[in-house]
Amino acid sequence: MPLAHGHPAGSAPGPAVLLAAAAVLSAVAAYLAAAARLRRRGDAWPRARDAFFGAGGTALAAAALAVPPGGAFTAHMLQHLAVGMVAPLLLVLARPLTLLLRTLGPGRTRRRLLAVLHSRAAAWLVFPPLAAVLDIGGLWVLYRTPLLAATHHHPLVHAAVHAHVLAAGLLFSLAVCRLDPLRRRWGLAWRSTALLGAGAAHAVLAKTLYAVPPPGTGFPAADLRTGAKLMYYGGDLVEVALAAVLAVQWYAAAGRAQARARRHGRPGPPRRP
């Protein structure tokens, strides 16, 4: 049974897969070149962000080109975690939109990009609960309807699912981390609640897959259970990383609030342990 992502075991990657991998690696090269340009003109840009973007791009390229070990569903789930969770978080931590805005000079292109980022549509797309529904809801549709089986027989469906998993993962990571400049900066309560809800829905889905395969598929029971456990525990790891980003932001915001309060001669809010 072919995989829902990547290419069937024992076959060479097709032209579309090679093109997608080349596009990802080109994006990594463009990011690194833009970061180097910033540093040459004397601007600061942390090298950790270069590493994040490079690692995210490598994860995407590997998911497209490599066939992971294990049964078909286990291999598919490894690719799902790479494309839909790990790579999006790494790419968002690299702050690519911020880098693009800083490298673009004043002009029409930069104004248009800012207009898109500050638009009402962009503000609602990164509304954390909506981003969570688009991300986790899409997975429920994929695994609890015949859609996964259809991806094995229809290349266009396969490509559309692949694109959705990546785009939804990027949108959710962007909405939760809130690192790049956007018009509406949803608060910590919205983002943490969305993360908790998405994590719970992801865990429940993994547990259902442990017992019942996706409709129309015939994965062996051992393969299904291994893949479901990968989804459960791998999802937990990525969600803990997202929670760590939120914790760092809360701590930094509390510190800034205390500093402002001291400057104005009034006591700041107490820090929580």
From TrEMBL:
<feature type="transmembrane region" description="Helical">
    <location>
        <begin position="80"/>
        <end position="101"/>
    </location>
</feature>
<keyword id="KW-0472">Membrane</keyword>
<protein>
    <submittedName>
        <fullName>Putative membrane protein</fullName>
    </submittedName>
</protein>
<dbReference type="GO" id="GO:0005886">
    <property type="term" value="C:plasma membrane"/>
</dbReference>
<keyword id="KW-0812">Transmembrane</keyword>
<keyword id="KW-1003">Cell membrane</keyword>
<feature type="transmembrane region" description="Helical">
    <location>
        <begin position="16"/>
        <end position="38"/>
    </location>
</feature>
<feature type="transmembrane region" description="Helical">
    <location>
        <begin position="188"/>
        <end position="210"/>
    </location>
</feature>
<keyword id="KW-1133">Transmembrane helix</keyword>
<dbReference type="InterPro" id="IPR019108">
    <property type="entry name" value="Caa3_assmbl_CtaG-rel"/>
</dbReference>
<dbReference type="Pfam" id="PF09678">
    <property type="entry name" value="Caa3_CtaG"/>
</dbReference>
<feature type="transmembrane region" description="Helical">
    <location>
        <begin position="122"/>
        <end position="143"/>
    </location>
</feature>
<feature type="transmembrane region" description="Helical">
    <location>
        <begin position="155"/>
        <end position="176"/>
    </location>
</feature>
<feature type="transmembrane region" description="Helical">
    <location>
        <begin position="230"/>
        <end position="253"/>
    </location>
</feature>
<feature type="transmembrane region" description="Helical">
    <location>
        <begin position="50"/>
        <end position="68"/>
    </location>
</feature>
